[in-house]
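@channel sequence for tomorrow's demo:
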Amino acid sequence: MADDFGYHIDHHGSLVRPAELLAARTRGLGREELAAAEEQAVAAAAHAQRRLGLSAVGDGQFRREHFESVVYDHVSGFEPVAGPAPLADAAGIAAARRRAAPDSPAARGRLAQAEVATVLAIVDRPVFVALPSPGYLAALGSALADSAAVDAVQARGEALASVVRDEIAALAQDGVAYVALGNPLYAPLLTVAGRERLAGQIDVDAVLAAMIEADRAAVSGLELPGEFRLGLDLTDSGPIPATARGYDPVALEAVLNETPFQRLCVDFPADPGARLPLEMVKPGLVVSLGVVDVSFREPEDVDALLELLDPVVERRGESDVAIATNAGFAASADGGRLSEDQQHAKLRLVETVARYYWGNEI
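structure tokens (generated this afternoon):
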């Protein structure tokens, strides 16, 4: 089924934290005062996204310390880790974001309800939320050193899938229109150079299979409103590592085969050899193309981006394509490379490119 609800613009969820919010946190405010500062920042960000014409609006992840914190803060059993984590290293995930997943995770209430409540109340746009996928959370802190470790990732991923699945269902009941599960660990497992780097350190195919099973379990069979969208996001904080020599087609087919997701968010660099081969993505699976690069400050040339995109839009059709940045703007609270003004310029560029194709439809 093609995406007939017009979600043609993506930005992956995380935004640069406003200076006022960062200052409020460093002042050591009490819980109520900090919550009020977060509410103010979220309201401003939601209105800014609406004015930009973004297809779906989020809270910027302003309440999260890291992308993964929405789970770490609300699910018991996650523990700090030290030591080798070759897959996380290959994906460029900072050590501060890694935790060892529990065998028996238990949610302490809702995960993202507080994130979406304000946005749902103040804007008349579809609201979206990005969640870390269960396969990602299960593998992120593991050394994956042997078959027992991979088996543990699979079991923990399946347990976490139940938690994530319940949250997706609850978000749909809240009125959220779009949930994207983020798993940047897929990139090194799918790319030729990434797989070569990991060979001899982990069982690449076994780890990939374990993550796929967990991520699909989180969404397969959910009964959701017809306009609700589920996405799988392969990006994290900029250009995907290790893509210079392209993707392994067999590994990529394992992810794409019988996928329950309706959207796939990918980096789309200028170098054709570094792109995910879109000819392998079946019609009806909307591809959100990260053509606007958040890893450098200056906005790209609009005509150059259109030149990259025109063949894809012509080949796949407008209903199967969305335009996006190639990652979120700040996977950690202190991790943004861009200023708020530079971020706004990048989002404006995404909106400009999308409007070229879809006009008033977006």
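heads up for whoever presents: The chain is about 40% helix and 10% strand.
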